[in-house]
Every structure is written in structure tokens, then in C-alpha cells.
Design brief:
CATH superfamily: P-loop containing nucleotide triphosphate hydrolases
Number of strands: 10
Strand content: 25-35%
Helix content: 25-40%
Oligomer: single chain
CATH architecture: 3-Layer(aba) Sandwich
Structural class: alpha/beta
CATH topology: Rossmann fold
Order of helices and strands: EEEHEEEHHHEHEHEEHH
Length: 230
């Protein structure tokens, strides 16, 4: 379980998050939606223990989030932080050496699914293939929390749908809390249990996706356009 208790994060005079309180439950997949600069990435970094609140508390699995939280959280950042001299296989081996929960067999399956060559040099990979590798590294870890920040950035729209469907095989729906921050709404809608709209550092609305469809008759994209227009 993840809990935000009156969390505020300030960068100088600007608010990354502004007095945010909510709970994310185990066994659900959440979509975090909002414009650039709304606070999505700050939220994920706080859950991962990489950014600390100016005020308030972030609780992950019963403990206040800090640097040690990385042991329990697989975090796919929007940034590209690869070691350029490495090959794909070198990154796999590096993650295996750093994270006890990294499953090499799963990583090999994911490499095949993502059609990545272990011997390919990172500096020669396209942006899309670098994005695929980041997904491999995150999904190969067996963690209670999975954070994906713009996981489909750079991927060809023609392959996004198949990759999203493939993700279903590598998510533990009973034991993981999954949070996806993305602009690619159409592709991830079938995955989501709940969606949160964030703007100017505040969660302005939250909906169960199934109820949104049945009660309001709206897709997530339609709801998002309506929410942010208001």
C-alpha cells in the first residue's frame, strides 16, 4: 500500500505537489494523468524515495519512503540513464548484480519479447529500443511496487498495443501496486483499475475505470478532456 499524507513538495517558489492526500492499494493498476509539469514525475520519485516532501509523509508498505525504498520499488524513469559503452547484456548483468529481486530468466524472456539483441551496443540503439530495454529492466524485478513514468515514450505507435498487451504477462495483479504516468491513454486504458487526474500539483479528480465507463459512459480519454477542460 502507498499513502500520501498532506504531502507538499516545493521547488523554490513553485509547487511540485500541493497538500496531496490519497491511498493506492495493493493489487491495482493506477493511471496518473495530467499535463507536463503537473506533478506526475514528482509523485513517482517520492514513492521511489528519490525525492523527499517539503511537508507531509509518503508511506510505502508501512514505512516512510526513503533511499532504502528502492529495494521494494521498480522504477522506470522518463530519463535515459544508460551507460553508453555498455551493451544490452551488460545492463542486464549490472541490474542482476544490484538488485537481489532481479530475475534473470524473466529478463531473458522479456528480451525476446521486446526483440532486443543482447550484443547490441546501447549507443547504437534507437530511442524506441532504449525504451524497450528500460521496460525489460523494470519488469524483470520482483517487487511489490512498479512505477512506470512515460513507459511508451519513443515507441512506434504500431507496436505499442502489442507491448501493452504483453505487459499483462509480467505484472503480478495480486501482489503489486502499479502506477503508470503517461500521455498514451488509449493504449493503457484496458490495463487500468483507477485513474487519477493531477494538475498544478493537486489531484483534482479520481475514478474507478469500470464505473467511469458504466456510470458516466466515458472512456478515460473522454473523461480526461472533460476534466482538464473544466
Amino acid at each position: 500500500m502507498i499513502k500520501f499524507q498532506h504531502v507538499t513538495k516545493k521547488y523554490g517558489r513553485k509547487y511540485g505537489l500541493n497538500d496531496v492526500s490519497y491511498t493506492l492499494e495493493k493489487g491495482k493498476i493506477y493511471g496518473l494523468i495530467g499535463p507536463n509539469g503537473s506533478g506526475k514525475s514528482t509523485t513517482l520519485k517520492m514513492i521511489a524515495g528519490l525525492v523527499h516532501p517539503s511537508n507531509g509523509t509518503v508511506i510505502v508498505n508501512g514505512k516512510e519512503a526513503d533511499r532504502k525504498t528502492a529495494r521494494e520499488v521498480a522504477y522506470l524513469t522518463e530519463l535515459d540513464t544508460f551507460y553508453q559503452p555498455f551493451k544490452v547484456g551488460d545492463m542486464i548483468e549490472f541490474y542482476y548484480s544490484q538488485f537481489p529481486d532481479f530475475r534473470m530468466e524473466r529478463a531473458e524472456e522479456l528480451l525476446q519479447f521486446m526483440k532486443l539483441d543482447r550484443d547490441a551496443k546501447l549507443k547504437q540503439l534507437s530511442k524506441g529500443n532504449r525504451g524497450r530495454l528500460k521496460l525489460v529492466l523494470a519488469l524483470a524485478r520482483e517487487t511489490s511496487v512498479l512505477l512506470l513514468d512515460e513507459p511508451f515514450s519513443g515507441l512506434d505507435p504500431m507496436v505499442r498495443d502489442s507491448i501493452v498487451k504483453g505487459l499483462l504477462s509480467y505484472i503480478d495483479f495480486e501482489n503489486q501496486t502499479v502506477v503508470i504516468a503517461t500521455h498514451e491513454i488509449d493504449e493503457i486504458e484496458p490495463l487500468l483499475d483507477e485513474v487519477l487526474a493531477i494538475q498544478n500539483g493537486k489531484v483534482i479528480d479520481r475514478y474507478n475505470v469500470e464505473e467511469l465507463r458504466e456510470t458516466e459512459g466515458l472512456s478515460i480519454l473522454e473523461w480526461m478532456k472533460q476534466t482538464f477542460k473544466e
